[in-house]
Amino acid sequence: MKINQLIKETTKYSYHYNEPHCLSKIGKVTYDLMVDLNPNYNKEIVYLCIGTDRATGDCLGPLVGTRLSLLVPYANIFGTLQNPCHATNLTEILNNIDTQFNNPLIIAIDASLGNADRIGYINIKKGSLKPGTALKKVLPEVGDFHISGVVNVAGFLEHMVLQNTRLYLVYSMADIIAKSLYLAHFRFERNMKSSCTLGVLDF
């Protein structure tokens, strides 16, 4: 593997949800990864929004799924407030995805814990997500690339930390992520149609 290829595959993009142009930055990185991992536009995009509404800090994924389903009603979204995707049913949902789709591009979204100075940061990285890490759970790795939001501090009584996370923070981050995904999805679809009809890609 070439050095520049290794760097590209391990790069993590990170933006605070309150920083200027955060939405457009995340949207661009997400779109670029969609194209990089699906250059022929032949894979269906699946959004896997992981988490539960039973803990404030862990509801980032379901909030994103719910918000995105309103912005893009026809998108393939697994994990909403009404029908969350969590540790108990993750394997079943992954099996359903395998049954419904042929080699889809899976974008995983989940909450995470980190250092105090990283709270509020939204991270985008190529490669699989390891859900349940903060709570020491062993779950299947998911996603061709993933988006995670640091909602609180890690290292001590993680269950309590997730229960005592501010809803405003989680909601604000989820709103940014959902809108960014909408922008990336819209641009990807537009260029997919252009590619099919004209053979021209818009980069």
Beta-strand percentage range: 15-25%
- Give me the CATH architecture, please: 3-Layer(aba) Sandwich
Question: What value does the Rg take, in angstroms?
Answer: 16 Å
Listing every helix as H and every strand as E from the N terminus to the C terminus, the arrangement reads: HEHEHEHEEEHH
Largest sheet: 6 strands, mixed
Tell me the helix content: 40-55%
- How many structural units, i.e. domains? 1
* The CATH superfamily title: HybD-like
Report the top-level CATH class.
Answer: Alpha Beta
Query: If strands are numbered along the chain, what order do they take across the biggest sheet?
Result: 1-5-6-4-2-3
Derived from helix and strand composition plus strand pairing, the structural class reads alpha/beta
Shape: globular
CATH domain fold name: Rossmann fold
Tally of DSSP β-strands: 6
- In the predicted model, the low-confidence regions spanning at least 5 consecutive residues are 1-8
Termini separation: 26 Å
Helix tally equals: 6
What would the average pLDDT be, to the nearest integer? Answer: 89
